[in-house]
């Protein structure tokens, strides 16, 4: 008798089968590697696949399970890692030529936790260069495609992780979120993505873009799977100066609670006028958002419109703060210490080699943001630009504080639009920047956010975003799971089960 397709199981289902001895980690890992081989030539979610390492790790988990050892809740489950997170012995490029071929001598803390939790790392996923982008078209190694429509973007910067999950190449993935880079890809690929509270998951080993905004987080196809992975990742890390010492509740328990009757009875949902509707929001997105709110109201939640007057300035502030920090962080890629070094004829001074290396190693979008950030930090402009942006950031944080004094969570569409065609906005970066208006406020304030599939518009996924107060991540899993259950019941199954079947093709 033929067993179930292991790639179509949720991480929770796969973990249960592994615990029950109904399958092995080797079989699960091989199934996902076969799926990658079959379809990633079309999707291009992965930059590096570690088949031998993954199978060896899976075999070790199976041996330990057979020996009766206590293993983690996700032991033996495969996971993909965004390629701006350091992995011992595996290439880590951040999607940039300037780090092509670099193999870190250490694991990021989150990767250490994956290995300690007995998960199996399949490989590294594609991203916009140094996480600078919203489409995964700005990778030096080619664009990733959306499994729902291979002619469309999978979001960014973590489009590789989201596409891998949506295409059943991995049940779980890690991403980083600086201005929406986990949540927006989740939205346009019909998956779940979470930006934890700033400091809730260690950033040690993440290649920095903007240190006061970056946050590692989980991605999966269900709210429970995402919560299970978050439980593995969270906790204090003394190697990260911004890591919170707080103990964290079980996010998986919060997600399971959200699937119960009455989970959102009395929940107060606020809708920020500034980032929920208006110009630039596609009608299908607005319709799915309204339906999601109606579904939660029908289950006992109350919905209130909230004024957040400074959210309207969040995008402008972000696109000064983020490039300024990026300019500083990316200065380390100087041709001297590590990474690419270009040859210069004649008199190869440090300045000439550095200039040639950075010109050759960084792509156009990275250069654009480095230049903008350097300008914003320059003498005579610091107070007018960077300093003013930080003042706006404080006002955005106050808006959140005022809102959470009135409501339990805030809700908005994760993205104003569904996935656009590849190449459609490459020559209009401002249009891409403005599209981040719904996700950026959470990064500026350091609060957690989740994107949950809300349905389809014109056959493409729409994400619903919830945000909660700092350290209140568990509440997001409860409301996210409640919405997931409500919509799954209405549409007769999960949205991810409707991904069109890929024709497949050998990986290039």
From TrEMBL:
Its EC number is 6.3.5.7. One of its GO terms (molecular function) is glutaminyl-tRNA synthase (glutamine-hydrolyzing) activity. Keywords: ATP-binding, Ligase, Nucleotide-binding, Protein biosynthesis, Transferase. GO terms for biological process: translation. GO terms for cellular component: glutamyl-tRNA(Gln) amidotransferase complex. It is an enzyme of class 6 (ligase). The active site is at 82 (charge relay system), 157 (charge relay system), 181 (acyl-ester intermediate). It catalyses: L-glutamyl-tRNA(Gln) + L-glutamine + ATP + H2O = L-glutaminyl-tRNA(Gln) + L-glutamate + ADP + phosphate + H(+). Pfam families: Amidase. InterPro entries: Amidase, Amidase_CS, Amidase_dom, AS_sf, GatA. It comes from the Bacteria. Residues 27-476 form the Amidase domain. Allows the formation of correctly charged Gln-tRNA(Gln) through the transamidation of misacylated Glu-tRNA(Gln) in organisms which lack glutaminyl-tRNA synthetase. The reaction takes place in the presence of glutamine and ATP through an activated gamma-phospho-Glu-tRNA(Gln). Heterotrimer of A, B and C subunits. PANTHER family: GLUTAMYL-TRNA(GLN) AMIDOTRANSFERASE SUBUNIT A, TRANSAMIDASE. Belongs to the amidase family. GatA subfamily. HAMAP family: GatA (MF_00120). This is Glutamyl-tRNA(Gln) amidotransferase subunit A. The gene is gatA.
């Amino acid at each position: 008798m033929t067993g179930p397709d292991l790639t179509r199981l949720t991480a929770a289902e796969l973990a249960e089968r592994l615990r029950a001895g109904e399958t092995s980690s080797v079989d699960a890992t091989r199934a996902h590697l076969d799926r990658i081989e079959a379809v990633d030539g079309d999707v291009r979610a992965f930059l590096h696949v570690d088949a031998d390492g993954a199978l060896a790790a899976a075999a070790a988990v199976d041996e330990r399970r057979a020996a009766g050892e206590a293993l983690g809740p996700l032991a033996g489950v495969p996971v993909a890692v965004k390629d701006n997170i350091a992995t011992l012995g595996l290439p880590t490029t951040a999607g940039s030529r300037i780090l092509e071929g670099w193999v870190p001598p250490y694991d990021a803390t989150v990767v250490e936790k994956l290995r300690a939790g007995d998960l199996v790392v399949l490989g590294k996923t594609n991203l916009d260069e140094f996480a600078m982008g919203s489409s995964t078209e700005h990778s030096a190694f080619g664009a990733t495609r959306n499994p729902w429509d291979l002619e469309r973007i999978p979001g960014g910067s973590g489009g590789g992780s989201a596409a891998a999950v949506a295409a059943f190449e991995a049940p779980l993935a890690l991403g980083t979120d600086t201005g929406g880079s986990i949540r927006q890809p989740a939205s346009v690929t019909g998956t779940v993505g979470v930006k934890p509270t700033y400091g809730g998951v260690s950033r040690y080993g993440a290649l920095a873009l903007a240190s006061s905004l970056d946050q590692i987080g989980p991605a999966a196809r269900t709210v429970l799977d995402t919560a299970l992975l978050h439980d593995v990742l969270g906790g204090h890390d003394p190697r990260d100066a911004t890591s919170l010492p707080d103990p964290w509740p079980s996010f998986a328990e919060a997600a399971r609670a959200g699937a119960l009757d009455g989970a959102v009875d009395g929940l107060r949902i606020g809708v920020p006028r500034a980032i929920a509707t208006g110009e630039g929001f596609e009608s299908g997105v607005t319709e799915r958002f309204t339906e999601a709110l109606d579904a939660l109201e029908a289950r006992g939640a109350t919905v209130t419109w909230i004024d957040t007057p400074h959210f309207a300035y969040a995008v402008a502030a972000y696109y000064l703060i983020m490039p300024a920090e990026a300019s500083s962080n990316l200065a380390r890629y100087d041709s001297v210490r590590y990474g690419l070094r270009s040859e210069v004829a004649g008199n190869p001074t440090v300045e000439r080699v550095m200039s040639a290396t950075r010109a050759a190693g960084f792509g156009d979008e990275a250069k654009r943001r480095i230049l903008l950030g350097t300008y914003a930090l320059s003498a005579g402009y610091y107070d007018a630009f960077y300093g003013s942006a930080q003042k706006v950031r404080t006002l955005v944080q106050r808006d959140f504080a005022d809102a959470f004094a009135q409501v339990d969570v805030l809700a908005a569409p994760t993205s104003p639009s569904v996935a656009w065609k590849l190449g459609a906005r490459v020559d209009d970066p401002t249009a891409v920047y403005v599209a981040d208006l719904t996700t950026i406020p959470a990064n500026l304030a350091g609060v957690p956010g989740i994107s949950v599939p809300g349905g389809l518009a014109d056959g493409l996924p729409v994400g619903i975003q919830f945000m909660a107060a700092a350290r209140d991540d568990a509440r997001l899993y409860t409301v996210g799971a409640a919405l997931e259950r409500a919509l799954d019941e209405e549409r007769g199954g999960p949205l991810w089960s409707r991904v069109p079947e890929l024709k497949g093709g050998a990986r290039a």
